Design the sequence.
């Protein structure tokens, strides 16, 4: 019953999403947090994720590579050039013929344009730059690009989302669609919207990426996580961003 | 795609295959009648397994009569009274592989190693519980006859 009722609710909610916005039953992880953690996210002065954004801001204009160029040399003011960018990633990269997430694009610029070498996944610098770029889209609705080249990857992400994995044999959908709002031990299961990333997680005592979050979920199911930067994570992100289309970017969010 | 490749690799591994170590069992009418060990389990040890978060994981989803355990989940029916609702054989099948009862269930298969995808290396080829532990848990669940006793919900 507990399950059936909940999935009936989710199905009804999805049906409604198509039409009336007012009936949108999608909830950001923010909506499920206590007032203290919500206030921590809302106030920039108390949001620890802002430290990462600040670090990103100084990296944005720090010269690097043989030509001593910075992101700002090419892109100017991030507040203008980077506005809305995070809301439409992952995007298709023609050069590599595959989708790139925002961190992947930043690392690619760093490697090929600045010629300063790629930034390792989850490195402080990459998380900081991604947070700073993400911040420029805060409040904007998630707007996945209508690019047919992304479709097979998004479909693959959807398949991954419903695939059972790990020794515990759970799929993402079983927790985040069928049991969202329920409690796994003490943890409230959120609907898994990628609205806040990179975000500061109290459990990490750090700002981290969506891939780090997904890795945590996979380890929780006793599955072998995908490799950081791997196509599977980007496929999952494409699907999650589509599922969250229209919801507001919160970067940098705070989560328990 | 990946799973079959992994299984092929397993088949070529030298030495004894883990699968051979799993006790064979028979499902009849939604039950596994025979004890996996040929012995009755120990309900006291069973209770400890159910209560222990890292071992049984049961209370991540179920509630039950465990006043000492805080933060019980609410994704599954209470275990209180389950010994009156189900026979020993039904409980054993539910523990061994709940997907045989309900293909969509979220309850992990506690005594199965095949048909699982991307299992982390540390857990690969291992069941969640071994046969004596399954029997201990079944023996404990059999003692849960009273629907009202100590329910936390």
Sequence:
């Amino acid at each position: 019953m507990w399950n059936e009722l909940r999935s009936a609710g989710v199905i009804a909610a999805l049906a409604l999403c198509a039409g009336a916005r007012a009936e949108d039953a999608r909830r950001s992880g923010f909506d499920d947090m206590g007032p203290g953690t919500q206030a921590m996210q809302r106030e920039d002065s108390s949001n620890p994720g802002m430290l990462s954004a600040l670090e990103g801001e100084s990296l944005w204009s720090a010269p690097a590579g043989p030509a001593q160029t910075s992101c700002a040399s090419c892109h100017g003011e991030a507040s203008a050039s980077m506005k809305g960018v995070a809301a439409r990633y992952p995007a298709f990269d023609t050069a590599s013929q595959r989708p790139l997430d925002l961190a992947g694009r930043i690392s690619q610029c760093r490697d090929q344009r600045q010629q300063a070498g790629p930034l390792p996944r989850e490195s402080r610098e990459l998380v900081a730059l991604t947070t700073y770029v993400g911040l420029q889209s805060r409040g904007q609705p998630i707007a996945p690009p209508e690019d047919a080249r992304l479709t097979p990857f998004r479909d693959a992400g959807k398949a991954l989302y419903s695939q059972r994995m790990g020794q515990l044999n759970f799929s993402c959908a079983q927790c985040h669609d069928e049991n969202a709002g329920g409690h796994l031990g003490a943890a409230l299961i959120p609907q898994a919207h990628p609205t806040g990333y990179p975000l500061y997680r109290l459990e990490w005592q750090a700002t981290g990426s969506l891939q780090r979050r997904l890795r945590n979920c996979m380890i929780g199911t006793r599955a072998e996580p995908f490799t950081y930067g791997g196509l599977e994570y980007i496929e999952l992100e494409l699907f999650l961003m589509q599922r969250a289309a229209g919801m507001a970017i919160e970067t940098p969010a705070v989560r328990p | 795609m990946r799973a079959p490749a992994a299984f092929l690799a397993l088949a070529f591994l030298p030495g004894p295959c883990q699968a051979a170590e799993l006790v064979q069992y028979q499902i009849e009418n939604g039950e596994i009648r025979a004890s996996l060990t040929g012995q009755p389990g120990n309900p006291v040890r069973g209770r400890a397994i159910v209560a222990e978060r890292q071992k049984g994981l049961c209370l991540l989803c179920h509630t039950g009569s465990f006043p000492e355990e805080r933060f019980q989940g609410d994704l599954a029916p209470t275990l209180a009274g389950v010994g009156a609702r189900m026979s020993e054989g039904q409980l054993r099948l539910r523990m061994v592989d709940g997907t045989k009862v309900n293909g969509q269930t979220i309850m992990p298969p506690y005594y199965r190693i095949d048909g699982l995808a991307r299992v982390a290396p540390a857990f690969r080829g291992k069941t969640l519980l071994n046969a004596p532990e399954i029997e201990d848990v079944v023996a404990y669940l059999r003692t849960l006859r009273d629907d009202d006793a100590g329910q936390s919900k």
The domain at 2-255 of chain A is CATH 1.10.760.10 (Cytochrome Bc1 Complex; Chain D, domain 2). The first helix of chain A runs from residue 2 to 18. The radius of gyration of chain A is 18 Å.
